[in-house]
Design a protein that fits this description.
The protein is about 40% helix and about 30% strand. With about 450 residues, the protein is of the alpha+beta class. InterPro entries: Uncharacterised_IM_CreD.
Length: about 450
Amino acid sequence: MSTSNRIGNWLRNSISLRMLVVGFILLVLLIPLAFVKDLIKERGQRQQEVIDEINGKWGKSVTLYGPIIKIPYRTFEQEKVLNPDTKAYITTEKEVFHTAYFLPENLDIQSKIDTEVLNYGIYESVVYSTQLRLSGNFEGFEFSAIEVPDKDILWSKATLLLRTSNLKGIRTEVEFALDSARYNLKPKFNNQRISTLESGFIKSMTEFKDKNLSFEMQMEMNGSESLRFVPIGKVTTTAMKSDWPSPSFSGEFLPEDDSKTIGPDGFKAQWKILEINRQFGQSFFYNLPELSEFAFGTDLIVPIDDYQKTERSSKYGFMIIGLTLLVFLLIQLISKISIHPFQYLMIGLALVMFYTLLISITEHQNFLRAYLISGLAVIGLITLYSASILRSFKFSLLIFSSMTALYSFIFVIIQLENYALLVGSVGLFVILAIIMFATRRIDWEPQE
C-alpha cells in the first residue's frame, strides 16, 4: 500500500482524529452557550430591577427600634473672651445644650406578617404587611454618670423617639400610649438611612422621672425582603408569626430553638435578648448612635426562583453537550457508521437551543412545565435526526434513553438545595463508570 493511501486510510479511520474533531466542535459550541448564559443573566437582572421597583413602591426592608425617651439638658463651659478696651481676657460662662437618650427597661414586640405576591408584567415579587405591637416600660432616668444637677435637666422638653428604615411602608398613625397619655409621632428630617419619628413634649415628665413608666404602641407596616428589630430593651422579647414557609433567621441573634417552628403553612419564632448579650448600654449622652448593626429578625427568601433554576441548569450545559456528543461518537466507533462533523455541529446547536427555549418559556409558565416542553422538544428533535443519520432503531432508542436520563438527572439536581452537590457527584461517578464499561472493548488503534 502506498504512503498516500496509508495516510488517507489513517485519516478516515483514526479514532484520535475523530475525537479531536468532536472536541473542537464542543469548544466551538461554548461560544453560543456563553451567549445563552449572558441572556439568562440579563433576564435575571431585569427581573431584579422590576422587583426592586415593586418593593420601592410597596415598602422596602424594615428595620425598627424604639421607643426611646429623649431628654435635653444643659452644661456650662468657661470661655475666655478678649476685652478690646482693656486688652485683657474675661472669663465667662457659656450655656451648652446636649441630649440624653434612655432605652426601655423591658420591651416586648409582637409581629404578625402576612405575605402577598405582586405581579408586574411577567415578573412577580413577594411583599408583606405586618401588624406590630410594642409594649414595655421605662424605669428611672439616671444622669449621675455625667454629674448633671437636676435643675439643669429640661424634663419638660422630653420627647419620644422611634427609628425605622422604611417610613414609606407605615400604614397607620404612629401613636404611643405612655402611662395615661397618648402621643403621635411625626417624621423628623435627617440625612441618615434610618429615619426618626418624634413626639411632642411628654406631659408631666417631672412627675414620671422617678416612677415606672409603661408604654404601648400598635402600627401596621408594608415591607419586603426582611423585617428586623434592634433589642434596645434591657430585656427584649420578640414573637414573630408569618404565613411564609421559607424564612431565613438573620442578624445578630437567632430565635430560641424550642420556640421555632417552620412548615408549609408558615413559621413561628421567639427571641429573648438581654442587655449583657449586646454591645451597648441603656443610655446615651450627647448623641444617639446608629444601632441597626445589632438588629435581628427574618429574611423572607424565595428558595430558588425560576431564573436561578435556569441559570443553574445552564451551568451543566457543557456536560450535557459533551456527554451527548460522546454517545454519538461511541455509536460511530462501535457501529462504524459515518457521522459528518457538520452533523455533530447540528446536534450541538440543538442542545444549546434547549436553554433559549427554557428561559423564554419560563417567563410565561412555571419552571417544571417549561423544562418539560424544552426537554421534549430537544430530545424529540435529536432523536428524529439521529434516526435519519444512524438508520438504526436500536441506536435511536439509545440516544432517546440517554438524553432523557441526562435531562432528568439535571432536573433533580436543580430542585435540590442541601443535597445538590452530593447527588451531582454520585451521578457523575455513575456516568463515568458507565462510559468506562461501554468503552472497555473498543480497539483504539486505526485499522489498515
